[in-house]
Amino acid sequence: MIPVPGFEGRRIAVFGLGRSGLTAARALKAGGALPVLWDDSVSSRMQAEAEGFAVDDLTAADWSDFAALVLSPGAPLTHPRPHWTVDKAKVAGIEVIGDIELFARALAALPDEQRPRVVAITGTNGKSTTTALVGWVLKQTGMTVHVGGNIGIGVLALPAPTPDAVYVVEVSSYQLDLTTRFAPDVAILINISPDHLDRHGGMDGYVAAKRRIFARSGLALVGVDDPWGRDTTARLKADGRAVASVSTSGDAADIMAAPGELTGADGRIDFRAARSLRGRHNAQNAAFAWAAARALGVPRDKVLEGLLTFPGLAHRMETVGRLGRVEFVNDSKATNADAARQALSAYDRSFWIAGGRAKSGGIDDLEDLFPRVVEAFLIGEAAGPFAARLGDTPHRISRDMASAVRQAYEAAAATGRDEVVLLSPAAASFDQYPDFEARGEAFRAAALALGAVPASAS
User: Domain Mur ligase central: where (predicted)?
Assistant: First the structure.
């Protein structure tokens, strides 16, 4: 745990007792604060009480006595309208912050010689893979590395700071909106495409939230394959900031990334042997990991070794098994069209399982990739609309995961050639599953039920 100083003896309102909220309360308490907790969930309140925390109905509390509000990133700060706790905090004249901000303040309180380094990663797509990849590469060199934030472990639950440590932290737009002093040594913005617009009041608000990662950062690494990344890079350079750009589109950039290959200040880097970094989007992830590791002083050969041995992440273009000549690939994390584009682009042919709860635009932006789809198998609420959009592209409505996997396998096996059954839904999971992880596990279970040999055993 990372104790948070600066609020000793002061009452702090904490709303939202999920992973980040409860962890924040523990860290505040360890730093000497007096957190007062509340959540709409009775079970969450009971858990907090069982840990000995003060639990009080914040709707009726005296807010004049609070020093700050620590808000769960799941609660809206501004849009569609501010959460009621935000309104109360504004009336009381107290700041509204989140767990990443508490983390930043805990590190800032340390003397310079005791302060660890921080690599922070955000973006619409690919941030979890890039975070895990940066952490993996650094760990292979023997560094003390702690990975967390919006991925895995809440940032304040990571081990306490030591001077030799590097924190590799994934941060969402929701978390960044709640920061004022976050100052990573290396800040990465992978890409930006429309997402979470309801929570940020539109594209301008979403982009502004993402850009907050650079407010106090050292080296800025920016993907320039989208107009928002290019504009961000131009703004940073105009301000005299240290910035390096990454491109997969062939446009001029400091690092050019193509499948299995990087070109930049270190010359040409060939990582085609990295089985878990297939596709153009993973080349982009590799470029950021390369640049971040080199900025932290990792030798060239050690970075390459890390790229080649990276095992990949579950639910992100994860090969879960093989049956005969058919490979089953789980990309359940692809909850929007832009994410699904990366997986579809990685294969010349695929038997594509898609659908769920569609996001704005559905699969309209994927039309240029439909020729790569041998046949699509559609599930969930979006099955009908996706079928209409696919038009003449072969498809069938499977409705549920087990049926889709079985039908896709039978169709793939019938070709008598090496094929891929690809789950890359281009939609949220919430119509059928509690999250994308559960959806990915359902895909894995269906493939194994057919007799697929797990990837770990092949």
Answer: 121-293
Give the residue ranges of DSSP H helices in 196-260.
197-200, 203-211, 227-238
Whole-number percent of the chain with pLDDT over 90: 90
Fold (CATH) for 11-97? Rossmann fold (3.40.50)
Length of the chain: 458
- CATH class of the domain comprising 318-457: alpha beta
User: In angstroms, rounded to a whole number, what is the distance separating the alpha carbons of residues 410 and 427?
Assistant: 24
Q: Scan for tokens 């509390």, then name that residue.
A: 61
Longest CA–CA span in the chain (Å) reads 72
Residues of the chain with CATH 3.90.190.20: 318-457
Nearest alpha-carbon partner for 35 in 2, 65, 77, 75? 65
Single out the residue of 305, 327, 270 nearest to residue 447, CA to CA: 327
Give me the pLDDT at residue 251, please: 78
Q: How far apart are CA 184 and CA 118, in angstroms?
A: 5
How far is it, in rounded angstroms, from Cα 25 to Cα 66? 14
Determine contact, residues 6/95, Cβ cutoff 8 Å: no
* Residues placed in the known binding site for ATP: 123-129
Torsion of CA 237, 238, 241, 243, to 10 degrees: -10
Q: Class of 101-309 per CATH?
A: alpha beta
Residue extent(s) of CATH 3.40.50.720 domains in the chain: 11-97
Q: Across residues 20-38, what is the average pLDDT?
A: 96
- Quickly state the pLDDT bin for 27 (edges 50, 70, 90): very high
Q: What is the pTM of this model?
A: 0.84
Rounded to whole angstroms, how far apart are CA atoms 200 and 211?
13
Residues spanned by CATH 3.40.1190.10 within the chain? 101-309
